[in-house]
Amino acid sequence: KAQQMYDTPTRNFNVWDNRNNPGVATLTQGNLKVVTDVSNYGKTMSTFGASSGKFYWEINDVSTAANHSNFDLFGIFLDGEATGGTTDYLGKTINGIAYYSYNGKIMQNIAETTYGDTFTTGDIIGIALDLDNGFIYFYKNNVVQNSGTGYPVPLAGEWLAALGDYIGTASGTY
Q1: Tens of pLDDT along 132-141?
Q2: In this structure, are strands 106-108 and 111-113 parallel, antiparallel, or unpaired?
Q3: Which of 23, 59, 68, 160 sits CB 3.0–4.6 Å from 49 for a disulfide?
Q4: How far apart are CA 84 and CA 155, in angstroms?
Q5: Residue 23 backbone zone (phi > 0: left; psi -120 to 50: alpha; other: beta)
Q6: What is the spatial distance between Cα 152 and Cα 62, in angstroms, rounded to a whole number?
Q7: Are 125 and 144 in contact (CB under 8 A)?
Q8: How, if at all, do strands 33-36 and 25-28 pair?
Q9: How confident is the model over 57-70, as a mean pLDDT?
Q10: Residue 16 has what DSSP assignment?
């Protein structure tokens, strides 16, 4: 008689999702590391999303490309919405919210909102997503940005962790 586990989940850990990547990124280290293509806007989303609750994750900015000009975008993207392929960067549409390494601003729907410090290779960006109250908070090396004031998140749909670039290459490790 064969033994069988009744609980056999297929996606146990939140990692970068190769199926939710418009072909402009390379995933390695068990999909914990992503490197976007230098010639395209690129974004990659995670395997798990959330529509309620509170979540926290960190991304180690490990960009090492020679032409990396500090154009990383770390944040969230609304699951099921058009990604825009290689023509839309994370934060260009209403469906994405990004913390921009170049100027420390939040990008959403093309608009840029003053938020926190710039970040670069070697920095660890923490992201706290509060979907019970509708806010996202960003941390740089364990220091909350914007004096701890969150950026509003629409409470509709399921949000995914996301990483992207704006004119350059982004690379991060979960």
Answers
A1: 999 999 999 9
A2: antiparallel
A3: 160
A4: 22
A5: left
A6: 28
A7: no
A8: antiparallel
A9: 68
A10: B
